[in-house]
Protein 1
Amino acid sequence: MSDPSGAIRIVIRYMVNFRERTGKKQEELTLAAGATVRDVLQQLNDRYDLALPDGSTMIVVNGKGWSQLPKGLEQELDNGDRLSLFPPLMGG
């Protein structure tokens, strides 16, 4: 459903330590049309002091890492997009 003001709604999903920092599993944000991944990260930094983007944090938009998006952090978001934040993944 389109917002008459041109605003879009996206869902942010917080994994592991981001859940602890924000106190939430997920939240919905309403943004101005044309908002980018970088705009969302700035809002989250301001709200939760997360210091994003961080090279060790995985940022996924609709199942793709931000580096896989055509415009990277400048990728515009669409209504209904899902952005997930994962801590550094370690294996051994």
Protein 2
Amino acid sequence: MLKKITKQKKIVLSNFISLSFLQGANYILPLITLPYLVKVLGIDKFGLVMLAQSVSLFFLIAVNFGFDISGTREIAILKSQKKDISKTFWSIIIIKLALVITCSVILFIIVKSVNRFNENETIYFLSYGVVVGQSIFPDWYFMGIEKMKFVTITNVTAKVIFTILIFLFIKSEQDFYYVPIFNSFGFILAGVLGFSLALRQIKFVLPSKTLIKSLFVDSVSLFIGKFFTNFYTSTNLIILSFFTGDVLVGVYSSIEKLLTAIRSVYIPIYQSVFPWFSTQQGQKKINIFHKILLVVSVIGIVIFFGVLFTGDFVLDFMFGDPEINKYSYVFKTLGIISLLSGLSMAFISFYLPSEKLYNLRMKIFIIVGISNFILSVILVRLYLINGNLVCVLISEILLLALGFYYYKQHAKGKLS
């Protein structure tokens, strides 16, 4: 028994190190490329590129369809049943490819129909390569079998290549089209490498329609939840673009990208522990969760005060752009999200999925997503970037409050 526990701890530690390295790359590489792109492309073209990425993110969520959670959980449970794993693997791949084709048609219709988008339609189509690459990258499979090093190797390789290409080929404002090209290339390369590695362990087994339907239905609520999550992230940027120009979009994107990189510190903790945590039961599971909450709280507080006291210096050092520096108060205020989002992720994207409470998770994201959308349309129109700031803070507080409430309700009922 002791050997089994020690082995499991080694697996979790190994996965944590691998994912920490990956998030380190996700943190460091954008810190290298973001200032360069803002300087070379100018804040307006940078804003356009970021807007196109935000639109692609909606389709990325559609294609992922929640399998990063449900797929991981299914593979983790089937870990020793190789034939069943193969059936699950190919079922998810089939669903994802069908979603890629569907989303391609939807993107074409939207871009051709909306004036704000068809003015620069090429940039939106080029950005879609990210969705294609992610559709074939089986990160959910590697997380399920607790081999996160494969996820790290493929992703870091692709991101390093993307970073090198940025510095080699982007020399002026006219080169802004290269950003989505290189970004898409990186994701497609990661997808091909990851899929090839998975095929070394997976045999082709034609899945049944029943299994495909079952996996699809199980993930519908996860997809809807993720989709509405995007309502209080990417949607805010898109709404801002309709009421302002690309310059203000570029300013907010720069700040948001920096904060996203900082907040990614939580991801290795949750993803490395999730497969094992999903198998725990009762009071033991609750105790483990409380320890994780404590760790996340300490990290969040440190990050918040770090952003609060060094915000001006960080923005000036990173971008050196007077237009961005004017909004340093936005960066410092949004620093509180580093604490709020870390805790809300614990309740909503870690604990609830581990109990397969996908519908409850979906309910929370729908409430917050719709609330955020309504607030954003009203506040951004009246107060522009400041309205966006207030809207994001309200949404994060609501998300945490709902996550805590439903966790307490479920934990109480489970232990009674």
Protein 3
Amino acid sequence: MALPQRVTEFEPFIAPAVEPRIRRCTFRRLSRISAGSGSGYEVSCLYPDRRMPLPIGDLETGLHICAACAADHLFRPDED
């Protein structure tokens, strides 16, 4: 004979979001910077002639700008 048991409310499992990553580009340059107590990266784009770097900003800002790049031929061939 089965006895009734109390049912606990379960909250739905929310999987952690996959962090977006910067696609591997042949024209991007990352420079490590130290500022006060922390450190980070500065992103520059060397497209089209690799002579004058175009500063994009920090890594988070560079992620969005590089993801919006429409020049598909810039990204490395092993990148999906």
